[in-house]
Amino acid sequence: MQTVVENVTVVDADSYDQQCVDSAIQQIFDNYPDAIAKDSRVFVKLNLVRDMTPDKAGTTHPAVVSAIVKALERYTTKIVVGDSSGGAYTAGYMHSVYDKCGITDAIKGTSAVLNNDFGYTTCAVDGRVSRKLDIIDSFVNADVVINVGKLKTHSFTGYTGVVKNLYGLLPGLVKVEYHSKFPHLSTFCDLLMDIEKFAHDKIVLNIIDAIVGMEGAGPTNGTPRHIGKLIACPDAYKCDVVAVSLFNDPLRMPLLRKAVERAIVSEQFVADAVQAMKPFYIEDYKRVDVIDDGVFLKMPNWLGKLMKRNLTPNVTIQSNCRACAKCKNHCPASAITIVNKRAVVDSNKCIRCFCCQELCPFDAIKLKKPLLYRITRSLSHSKKH
Predict the structure, then answer these.
(1) Which helix (H) or strand (E) holds 23?
(2) Three-state DSSP state, 186
(3) How many other β-carbons are positioned within 10 Å of the β-carbon of residue 248?
(4) Which of 97, 114, 166, 235 is most buried (CB neighbours < 10 A)?
């Protein structure tokens, strides 16, 4: 069964059984027959945030990757599959990610190859907060791109789908630099929108793996949640609006609210998406509520920091920390040190980007909600549309 909302296709897929996924992906490609020109060079950009097994629901599932490659082979054999994960953008690290996430096995026996070009190009950008960006060459050298996200909650942005997935066009640890440069959610969303604007013309199709998504402490330490959908559209924002409509009000997401304010997506489309997804809405989905901190930027610096500290979750290190230093090495604010074989966070330096939580391989980092945050959320939050 499939549902169409304007140009967004939502296809049922109850499991990652390969035949089931192949059929669902083929339905999607049949709806966009002119997306891929014959013999074009295609880059399939995945969501491989870090080295995780597919059952954790934090990365694009290999069955979806395999199905996309098979669908693309009708048009071309020039297919590169990959991503730039949160760690170092090197062959050694990325191939360990590909192996752990099941992507290496997913493309065996196909014409696709794993990305093995770890260079990047500094590109001019006509953005609101960016004039140039370092972009991975696997994207730069492709004729067209398939952007494949994963439906997940996100502790910093509230949700991650296909617009946020484009942050992975920045090479490896360059992401840390940009988190430091744009520590506020409001300006970070501006950065994401600049990246999407730059990438837009080359991306012919966005696909969200929502067969099993993630709820709770996403994007890596949450809980898998069966949803049973694949969502696709040439427009990344519309794809995300429909996906969020399965479990929340899209206008609660600062990124999507900005897209409406800038007339990238119409309020009418949001209303139509919410209405169309109402039969599939998951009432008890464990959401992440975030506060658009743009208001903090208008305050005196000391007051803005104080308000942010009390209205956003605080990072806490659990006893199962193994002092691997991954959080320390990837902290944009240099707020983490290793003391007595355990990570320690300086809350005065912490910018609440939650990269540490996202990249911790041992789920040893939790987010503690301050009292004022809990009061604010209890007064304003409703699960109903």
Answers:
(1) helix 18-31
(2) helix
(3) 22
(4) 166
Nearest CA among 187, 185, 141, 188 for reference residue 166: 188
Phi, psi (5° rounding) for residue 345?
-105, 130
pTM metric for this prediction? 0.90
Q: Backbone phi, then psi, for 106, in 5-degree steps?
A: -65, -30
Among 50, 141, 33, 45, residue whose Cα is nearest residue 94: 50
Q: Are strands 8-12 and 2-5 parallel, antiparallel or unpaired?
A: antiparallel
Backbone φ and ψ for 100, nearest 5 degrees, come out as -65, -35
- The identity of residue 50, as a single letter, is R
Cα–Cα–Cα angle for 74, 78, 84, rounded to 5 degrees: 115
Q: How confident is the model at residue 148 (pLDDT cuts 50, 70, 90)?
A: very high
Distance in angstroms (rounded) separating the CA atoms of residues 175 and 49: 12
The bridge status of strand 120-124 relative to strand 343-345 is: unpaired
Cβ proximity of 178 and 191 under 8 Å: yes
Nearest C-alpha neighbor of 347 from the set 305, 318, 297, 296: 305
Q: How far apart are CA 357 and CA 380, in angstroms?
A: 26
- Could you tell me which of 165, 170, 230 has the C-alpha nearest to residue 15? 230
DSSP 208: E
- Measured between alpha carbons, how far is 151 from 59 in angstroms, rounded to an integer? 9
Cα 41 to chain centroid, rounded: 24
Distance CA 286, CA 181 (A): 30
Question: Closest Cα to residue 193, out of 167, 172, 217?
Answer: 167
Cα–Cα–Cα angle for 363, 152, 163, rounded to 5 degrees: 125
Give the up-direction half-sphere exposure of residue 33: CA atoms within 13 A in the CB hemisphere: 1
State the CB neighbour count (10 A cutoff) for residue 239. Answer: 26
Amino acid symbol at 321: C
> What are the pLDDT digits (tens) for 183-224?
889 999 999 999 999 999 999 999 999 999 999 999 999 999
Six-digit token string for 257: 């609210």
Residue 365: partners with Cβ closer than 8 Å, 6 or more residues away: 221, 315, 316, 317, 318, 321, 327, 343, 356, 357
The pLDDT value given to residue 202: 98
